[in-house]
Design goal:
By secondary structure, the chain is an alpha/beta fold. It contains nine helices and 13 strands. Strand 7, helix 3 and strand 8 form a beta-alpha-beta unit. Helix 3 packs parallel to helix 4. The model has no long low-confidence stretch (mean pLDDT about 95). The structure holds zinc ion. The site of zinc ion has 4 residues, from loops.
Length: about 300
């Protein structure tokens, strides 16, 4: 099963899925997050609705919104957009440590991993707001070696997984932090199939991709369209050759409404390069429809299925 902002959905009904996108983001520090009132909420809905309708019309059914709490998460916006589009929209629990931990409230910096996990488990058990529950855990770390706060966040995400079965998607971006995150999961006896290495396409050394894949983690190549298509096609050919295509997730990391900017200042990237540019290129390369189906349907439903994965 997966948990959407409207409740449980059978993983078999997820259909075509985008695993890492954003509807709204607020880059201000945790203490200065802008309050989203009904007026602003309506403005966000009005601006973002056409982008979501566009992917709905391209045959997508499921959309993972990867904006954590204190980076602008607003589950009411997501629920309205889910109702208006008919898309399954999934939100998250967890804290975002990247950006020098400015999205983790300073009053929490001395908490223990257990304390962090307790807050996130509570969101799962009691709901975030209006009974809306998270469908995965999103965390983020600064480039390695991991600082003390980031280590605690990662351990907390492992604890929360063991308690809830929610998959952990961790923003990385370079090899040292990605490997250290994987190591902490191993120490906490969590099977690495419960871990998605977000922004794995930013890890330059392909040997590290293989090392993480061999450990069982999912790799997210989520900057499709933000780099030359050849870059991702090349990565795709390499993982197919190595036999790891079942462990690869793709997305755009696109969108979004930036909270704090006016309507006119918004600069939104649509969620469409996979459909319009990437898949045609895969087909040109002779990559089968079956593989495309894995990338967009089977792999996401396997990765985000809610179940405890112990080592
Ligand atoms: Zn993102």
């Amino acid at each position: 099963m997966v948990m959407t902002v409207k409740g449980f959905v059978d993983k078999k009904d997820m259909g075509k899925t985008l695993v890492h996108e954003h509807i709204l983001v607020d880059f201000s520090p945790a203490e200065e997050q802008i309050k989203i009132d009904d007026n602003l909420r309506n403005e966000i809905v009005e601006i973002m609705l056409p982008y979501l309708m566009e992917i709905k019309n391209l045959g997508y059914s499921t959309f993972f919104e990867c904006t954590p709490k204190y980076v602008g998460r607003d589950v009411k916006v997501l629920k309205i957009l889910s109702e208006k589009t008919g898309l399954n929209v999934i939100t998250n629990t967890g804290f975002y440590g990247a950006g020098e931990d400015k999205h983790v409230p300073k009053k929490y910096w001395n908490l223990s991993s257990e304390d962090f996990a307790k807050m996130w488990i509570e969101e799962w058990e009691k709901g975030i707001e209006d009974g809306i529950k998270p469908g995965f855990i999103k965390t983020a770390v600064n480039p390695g070696p991991l600082n003390e706060i980031d280590k605690k966040l990662i351990r907390a995400s492992a604890f929360t997984h063991l308690e809830t079965g929610l998959t952990v998607a961790c923003h990385t971006g370079e090899e040292r932090c990605a490997l250290e995150v994987a190591r902490i999961f191993e120490e906490e006896k969590v099977d690495l199939s419960a871990l998605i290495i977000v922004h794995a396409d930013a890890i330059e050394n392909f040997e590290v991709h293989l090392e993480l894949l061999e450990k069982g983690a999912f790799l997210e190549y989520d900057s499709i369209g933000a780099r030359p298509m050849e870059y991702h096609l090349n990565l795709m050919e390499k993982v197919i050759k190595e036999g790891f295509i079942d462990r690869i997730l793709i997305s755009h990391d696109a969108g979004w409404f930036t909270v704090g900017k006016s309507k006119e200042e918004q600069n939104i990237r649509p969620y469409t390069d996979i459909s319009y540019k990437f898949i045609p290129k895969l087909e040109e390369k002779g990559i089968s429809e079956e593989i495309v189906e894995k990338l967009l349907v089977n792999n996401p439903s396997e990765a985000f299925d809610i179940r405890v994965r112990k080592r």
